[in-house]
Design brief:
The chain is of the alpha/beta class. The chain has 2 domains: about 110 residues, NAD(P)-binding Rossmann-like Domain (Rossmann fold); about 190 residues, NAD(P)-binding Rossmann-like Domain (Rossmann fold, 3-Layer(aba) Sandwich). About 40% of the residues lie in helices and about 20% in strands. The strands form 3 sheets. The protein has a 6-stranded parallel beta sheet with strand order 7-6-10-11-12-13, with helices on both faces. Strand 6, helix 8 and strand 7 form a beta-alpha-beta unit. Helix 1 packs parallel to helix 13 and helix 5 packs across helix 8. The termini are close together. The structure holds nicotinamide-adenine-dinucleotide. Nicotinamide-adenine-dinucleotide binds next to helix 5 and helix 8. Nicotinamide-adenine-dinucleotide (NAD) binds next to helix 5 and helix 8.
């Protein structure tokens, strides 16, 4: 069996496939040349760069599996592949911990004013040390506070695990997950607890911190009305998709003091987020790096290789 890895894979993924007897070709073939070359392979691994469209699939009669390192399948004609008996596999779970830890990083940053302090210290740290110390001395601890999770899927559950580890109470809402078993602390301790989900209004009105972990939506799930329902001084985090929270409502909520701070990894209009959002001193910002850790990339490599091996074995 021969697999083309066109957008790269971690070394561990290549090794696993080779150990399973697969001939792995790591040489990228240009999109134009793929239509005449893909028939040499039984499988192809891509990330987001290579497009696997209908015309390509039609020119690759030997193709048995298309692997996508990551979550989104927008670059693959999935239904058409399935109609031709070709499996399509991806790695949705590999980055959950990384995204959850980034949400915690934003939360900690805002709770202790790190996002503002970092900006101000580099400009005025020497001239205004005492003033800055006073300005940023109103931090808040996470322990004992309630975090409300909107979406209790893979990332929501990982975040619940992080939050329990930090001594927080966790509440969550999810129309499709009624309860979830959450591990607490290192895996070898085997400690778990259960989160039973509730309605969104309870999450909005009872949480000190709110973090959103749902798929992209047509209309924002959090707008002006939802922010008004929240306690005063809530910290709001979005690492899911831009547009899940209305950005104008965020700016209003910060202005009124309803929101203490907001952590954003995702934005409407990526890769050119709104200038008011980018320049707001109460928003902690990262450029969509939720899944970007070495560990997540390794897990992507392992999960993808295992799914490719499994698919080719059963083909
Ligand atoms: P998942 O499918 O495992 O979980 C999503 C959960 O949201 C599901 O349980 C679903 O029932 C729930 N849900 C759907 N609509 C809801 C609603 N209206 N209210 C409450 N819950 C609702 O997905 P996941 O792997 O946890 O990913 C969550 C989000 O994170 C996705 O939008 C994904 O694109 C995003 N993500 C971001 C990054 C990043 O780099 N920042 C990386 C990976 C994933």
């Amino acid at each position: 069996m021969k697999v083309l890895v066109n957008d790269g894979i971690e070394e561990i993924g290549k090794k696993l496939m080779e150990e399973a007897g697969i001939d792995v070709d790591m040489n990228t073939i240009t999109q134009d040349d793929l239509s005449t070359r893909l028939n040499e392979y039984d499988g192809i691994c891509v990330r987001s760069a290579t497009k696997v469209r209908q015309n390509l699939i039609d020119n690759a009669p030997n193709l048995k599996v298309i692997g996508r390192g990551g979550v989104g399948l927008d670059n693959i004609d999935v239904d058409y592949a399935h109609s031709k008996g070709i499996k399509v596999v991806n790695t949705p779970a590999a980055s959950s911990r990384s995204v959850a830890e980034l949400a915690i990083a934003h939360l900690m940053s805002i709770a202790r004013n790190l996002h503002m302090s970092n900006r101000a210290m580099s400009l005025r740290g020497s001239a205004d040390f005492a003033k800055l110390k006073k300005a940023y001395s109103n931090g808040t601890e996470l322990e004992g506070k309630t975090i409300g999770l909107i979406g209790l899927g893979r990332i929501g559950q990982e975040l619940a695990s992080c939050a329990f580890g930090l001594g927080m109470n966790v509440i969550a809402t999810d129309p499709f997950v009624k309860e979830a078993t959450i591990k607490i602390g290192p895996k070898h301790l085997g400690l778990t607890t259960t989160v039973v989900t509730t309605d969104i209004d309870t999450v909005l009105t009872s949480s000190d911190f709110i973090s959103v972990h749902i798929p992209s939506v047509k209309e924002p799930i959090i707008g002006k009305k939802e922010i008004e329902m929240m306690k005063d001084g809530v910290i709001l985090i979005n690492t899911s998709r831009g547009g899940v929270i209305n950005e104008e409502a965020i700016l209003d909520g910060l202005e009124s003091g309803k929101l203490r701070g907001v952590g954003l990894d995702v934005f409407v209009g990526e890769p050119s987020p709104d200038a008011q959002i980018l320049s707001h001193d109460k928003i902690s910002l990262t450029p969509h790096i939720g899944a970007s850790t070495e560990e997540a990339q390794n897990k992507v490599g392992i999960e993808l290789a295992q799914k490719i091996i499994e698919s080719l074995k059963n083909s």
